[in-house]
């Protein structure tokens, strides 16, 4: 029977402490766990060698069954404790930093170390013939390999994927037809969290045989594509020009790489066009894609192209229909009826601008006119410190000049044509009756003016004590409208 003086009970006590520490110690404190494992191995080594239980030899006391068995258990466990500590040390010293979060390489490395420790324990502690064991295990490995062929295919495919690193944890990727965020990559499969919040598990063998698209690489450019079918009766050159302007109208689209517009295919029902452009943040892709559809609609509409079924004829281009369509797509005039729109149509004046020509500036006589962009692209800039800061871009249906026409406020902003542009102007005198009858139009103009204040610095000439919060700014603008138009809002 083991006694307190032969070391067996000491060894068993160390194993119990090791188990309790592994079970209850906080798993997030890796340094403490590593130090504790090294301490437990050191104590086990001291106890075993001090009491004649050398792990490199057969267990002592062969004539005492229970005592001999416990000594064998302690020596075998010593080999496994050493394997566990060596695995952790090799993981930190050999594996690259990027692989520390990948379970596959940790599992493979740990399996190899524990396999070597098991062979050592069998050879030294149990004194079994390793050569025969290896021969038997080789035959068994062949049988198991045939039985788990698909699983082995996943394992080796996982090794290739983790070695080449087409993606990392946290990347947004497309593997075949599945798109999502990589949340785990282990020896068996890769797990993606898709846009619907579902976990999709893809076997590594499947991922290795299909196309992998990593949206996080390169980190500074992220491509997006917008497909748009258009009536085949519309001349493609006109549509391509409108869609190119749509891509260039978005300030969030990168200029390098340059956006590209192309015809993908043509059928009897439609010609399919594609806009390919890039953004600098993965989070912007959905918003920019939605904006591009809106901008494409506006630029096509400005050229008389209405997205409609093939059986419906296209409306005529130009004339009163163009003015009516333009005013209907201006946000501030959404609540007006057809008679009021028609009255404003008669007061519109048409103006053409070449590239880089100034469309609007508060310094000249156009400061008290509402400028509505009908075709092309314009940019709103703010001169500052000898340079020009681009604040936003104007697409068909956008307007500028609300500050002057509402309250007579002079701002420092300038609107300049980026392409050949068509602009319709509406004088203050034409809008005053509308503002008197429709206070909601003035309120909408005030709201837009308030939104632009943050980027345009439109109150550079306003009193310094104006409250720039949303309510204070809107109230100040409404007061200016009352004074400028002698209205009661």
Automatic annotation (TrEMBL):
TM helices/strands, residue ranges: 6-25, 34-53, 108-126
Xref: SUPFAM superfamilies: cAMP-binding domain-like, Mechanosensitive channel protein MscS (YggB), C-terminal domain, Sm-like ribonucleoproteins
Pfam families named among the record's database cross-references: cNMP_binding (PF00027), MS_channel_2nd (PF00924), MS_channel_3rd (PF21082)
CC terms in the record's Gene Ontology section: plasma membrane
Cyclic nucleotide-binding domain ranges (all copies): 332-452
Domain of life of the source: Bacteria
Cellular localisation: Cell membrane
Membrane topology: Multi-pass membrane protein
Keywords: Cell membrane, Membrane, Transmembrane, Transmembrane helix
Protein name according to UniProt: Mechanosensitive ion channel family protein
Source organism: Paraburkholderia fungorum
Organism placement in taxonomy: Bacteria, Pseudomonadati, Pseudomonadota, Betaproteobacteria, Burkholderiales
């Amino acid at each position: 029977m083991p006694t307190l003086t032969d070391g067996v009970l000491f060894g068993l006590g160390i194993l119990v402490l090791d188990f309790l520490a592994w079970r209850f110690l906080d798993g997030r404190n890796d340094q403490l766990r590593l130090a504790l494992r090294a301490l437990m191995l050191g104590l086990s080594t001291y106890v075993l060698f001090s009491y004649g239980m050398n792990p490199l030899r057969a267990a002592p006391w062969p004539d005492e069954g229970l005592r001999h068995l416990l000594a064998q258990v302690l020596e075998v466990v010593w080999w496994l404790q050493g394997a566990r500590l060596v695995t952790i040390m090799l993981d930190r010293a050999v594996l690259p930093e990027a692989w520390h979060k990948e379970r596959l390489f940790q599992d493979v490395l740990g399996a190899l170390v524990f396999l070597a420790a098991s062979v050592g324990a069998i050879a030294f502690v149990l004194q079994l013939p390793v050569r025969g064991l290896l021969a038997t295990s080789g035959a068994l490995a062949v049988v198991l390999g045939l039985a788990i062929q698909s699983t082995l295919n996943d394992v080796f495919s996982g090794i290739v994927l983790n070695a080449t690193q087409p993606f990392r944890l946290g990347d947004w990727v497309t593997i075949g037809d599945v798109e999502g965020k990589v949340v785990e990559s282990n020896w068996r499969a890769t797990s993606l969290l898709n846009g619907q919040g579902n976990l999709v598990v893809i076997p590594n063998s499947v991922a290795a045989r299909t196309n992998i698209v990593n949206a996080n690489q390169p980190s500074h450019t992220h491509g997006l594509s917008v497909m748009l079918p258009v009536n085949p009766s519309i001349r493609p050159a006109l549509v391509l020009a409108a869609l190119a302007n749509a891509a260039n109208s978005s300030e969030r689209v990168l200029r390098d790489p340059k956006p590209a517009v192309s015809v993908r295919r043509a059928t009897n029902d439609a010609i399919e066009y594609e806009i390919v452009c890039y953004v600098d943040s993965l989070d912007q892709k959905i918003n920019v894609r939605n904006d591009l559809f809106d901008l494409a609609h506006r630029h096509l509409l400005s050229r008389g192209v209405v997205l409609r079924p093939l059986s419906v004829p296209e409306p005529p281009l130009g004339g009163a229909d163009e003015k009516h369509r333009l005013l209907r797509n201006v946000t501030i005039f959404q609540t007006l009826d057809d008679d009021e729109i028609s009255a404003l149509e008669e007061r519109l004046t048409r103006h053409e601008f070449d590239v880089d020509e100034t469309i609007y500036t508060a310094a000249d006589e156009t400061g008290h006119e509402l400028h509505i962009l009908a075709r092309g692209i314009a940019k709103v800039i703010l001169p500052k410190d000898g340079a020009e800061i681009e604040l936003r871009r104007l697409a068909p249906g956008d307007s500028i000049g609300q500050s002057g026409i509402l309250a007579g406020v002079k701002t420092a902003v300038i609107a300049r044509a980026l392409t050949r542009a068509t602009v319709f102007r509406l004088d203050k005198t034409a809008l005053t009756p509308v503002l008197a009858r429709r206070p909601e139009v003035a309120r909408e103009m005030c709201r837009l003016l308030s939104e632009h204040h943050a980027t345009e610095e439109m109150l550079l000439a306003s009193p310094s004590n104006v409250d720039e919060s949303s309510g204070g700014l809107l109230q100040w603008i409404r007061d200016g409208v009352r004074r400028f138009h002698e209205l009661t809002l």
